[in-house]
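Thread title: Can someone regenerate the structure for this chain?

I was given the following input by a collaborator and told the matching structure tokens would be attached. They weren't. Posting the sequence so someone can regenerate them.
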Amino acid sequence: MPSRELMILMAEDDAGHAYLIQQNLEDAGISNPVVHVPDGQEALDFIRAEGAFAGRVPNGPLLLLLDINMPRVDGVEVLRRLKADPRTDQIPVIMLTTTDDPREVQRCYELGCSCYVTKPVEYDRFVEAVRRLGLFLAIVQVPREDR
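Best answer:
Regenerated them for you:
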């Protein structure tokens, strides 16, 4: 299992998907804290310790699970802003989205995503994809956000 100090930030506007992701990560043995935010702006605020998260103190490894199609600020723009900022450019970003357009996959990798995972539409395949993601997260090493 990954170190308990790893925090997983999940930016996902679909509450049902967020619930399934969190439950299936737990089923895969991930016991790390998962913080869910419903849009890209809140993800940026959390990472930058701004807005509603102004009192948050970055204090360990952080990994972002990022949907693309979200309100306010979409996932691609969140990725672009994070990777353009030297304070946040080392945060690993896993795109976790239903978008499987090869051009979108290419663009996200060009912008610096660490990994691109397509959420299958079929429930059983969705659960299996998240379970496998959990197995991956159990072995991945993540830098501290307060470097």
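The chain has a mean pLDDT of 87.
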